[in-house]
Amino acid sequence: MKRDLPSLALYAQIKEHISRKIQDGTWPAGHRLPSEHELVAQFGISRMTVNRALRELVEQGRITRVAGVGSFVAENKPQSTLLQIANIASEIRQRGHDYRCRMLTVERLTASPDVAAWLDLRAGASVFHSACLHLENATPVQLEERYVNPQVVPDFLEQDFEAVPPSEYLVRNVPFDQIEHLVDAVLPTAEQAAMLAMEASEPCLLLTRRTWTRNVPVTWVRCLHPASRYRLGSRFRADGNPTS
Hints:
The protein is an alpha+beta fold. It has helices spanning about 10-25, 35-45, 45-60, 90-95, 115-120, 165-175, 190-195; strands at about 65, 70-75, 100-110, 125-135, 140-150, 180-185, 205-215, 215-225. It folds into two domains: about 10-75, Orthogonal Bundle (Arc Repressor Mutant, subunit A); about 80-225, Chorismate lyase-like (Chorismate lyase, 3-Layer(aba) Sandwich), CATH 3.40.1410.
């Protein structure tokens, strides 16, 4: 059963309104947005609130602002398939290999300051946490650690993740409209290296992902891959669209 999301803050309502106009094509690239004064009058809120919404949209690359002229919808930028959420189980099975997810933990925690910040929660708030190991032909290829916003996914702890891994469950049940991916080259800790059956001196690729629905953070996940066994990449056309 679907549940309503918590009421959005006023600045987030402005961001959602503008983002929806951009996403559905009502306001194409280069379109001039209503002025701050017009948005204040339309929504009956303070200019400071409107300014915050516009500032965050600039930081997200959705709009550009020209001093003394106005705000405009930003030009579209090419996005590779790396920015989509890949289903590692499907990828492995498509290669004709055996896939297995080994759950390490599923629990409720008190959010640390950094987790609270990533999920836009107050310090000390409750958060769901899971960790699992993805295996291809019994060989570990990805160590996943995930934090989930309980306000958005209240039933997370009740799922059978051995049958349906956390990522697949969230994609199926929680519609997301924004994704952030970061990729870093790192060395694993001794514990991580042991779980991934690799030497601690071998490099790893760390994929960090956040997703949002209606500007509310859903999940923050870190996926660690042994560089010798896994690659992150994409293929797309010159116009920026993925190949079919």
